[in-house]
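Structural prep section.
Before we set up the soaks we want a predicted structure of the protein with zinc ion in place, mainly to decide which crystallisation condition to try first. Input record follows.
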Amino acid sequence: MSNTGSKVISCPKCGHDNEIKLFKTVNATTDPQFREQLLSGELLSFTCSECGHTAELRYPLLYNDMKNRFMIYYIPDVDRDKLTDEALEKEYGSLEPITRRLVGSFNELKEKIHIFESGLDDRVIEVVKAALKDVVEKRTGEEVSGGYFSKYSASEDRIGFTFFVGDEGEQFVQTTRLEIYEKSAGVAKAAETEAESRSFRRVDRDWARNALYRYKKNK
Ligand SMILES: [Zn+2]
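Run finished without errors. Recording the tokens verbatim:
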């Protein structure tokens, strides 16, 4: 079940008090409609009933996909690498194995959902993304500020990412063969430890850089 609450917030434009619905948890398995609304952005958007002003709502929520066995804690601008939530452990600790992730932005949340729903390992994805980022920087001669997983096709033997290139953040799609994903699995798995896997962890660009560094050092 999804868990909701409500809160009154004042419109930043006209000051009108609006009662809004807040989601503490979104359960994608029991409430697929909330998954849809989350991915479309509707669930985290605020529209003032008085003046029509719209804004993005930013508050912590837990995304739970029981079918694909992953949970993602979204905490806007979180500045830590992992988080252990005792209450959540009590509730879900027995339901192993479950992948637990911590993300600090709505875009990261959407990317993780996309990765796990595709049946992929986000650690391997981050390692491949880091390698392809270098490829794109060499090809374009410009700096890449970020990128996200955007394509997976077994029939075309392609996995791909959309990168943001240069000062304008122009979109650049770079794909590669699935073999590269398989080859990167060793790097990602070597970085895992048992203790880490029980808390909500960040797996992002910094994580991939560390994993690659440790892998090369131990070779
Ligand atoms: Zn308003």
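Observations: The two ends are 46 Å apart (CA to CA).
Flagged for discussion at group meeting.
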